[in-house]
Amino acid sequence: MFQxxxxxxxxxxxxxAFDVKEIDFMLLTHAHIDHxxxxxxxxxxxxxxxxxxxxxxxxxxxxxxxxxxxxQEMEVEWxxxxxxxEGKLGxxxxxxxxxxxxxxxxxEPIEYSELVQIDDSIIVRFNDAGHMxxxxxxxxxxxxxx
Length: 146
Prior knowledge:
5 helices
């Protein structure tokens, strides 16, 4: 999620430059909102595949993402009141707390050091990054057709 100035935060409303339904899976390094905060937006737009993360990251996201959705709802309500006074149309929140709660079902908890076979050609391993609770450096092995 883009955070910072109004101009930077407005980027969160930009269309994705790809079809979210074509994403096979996500690898999430940690729960900070600048890393996880647009997963509910992806969900709203149709993403339904796994989000792999450590158990602690999954647990933190069950709290942080619905809270972020609540913040989105409150901020857009305030902005829309102002827009209405200016004679402008309102717009929906980036996502709601409910959207965030729904996307949590996509999260797949992974243990540190566990080798995870994502598909026939991709294996990943999450290693402790020490950045925050549950953060990981992710190793990815990919077999290419040669």
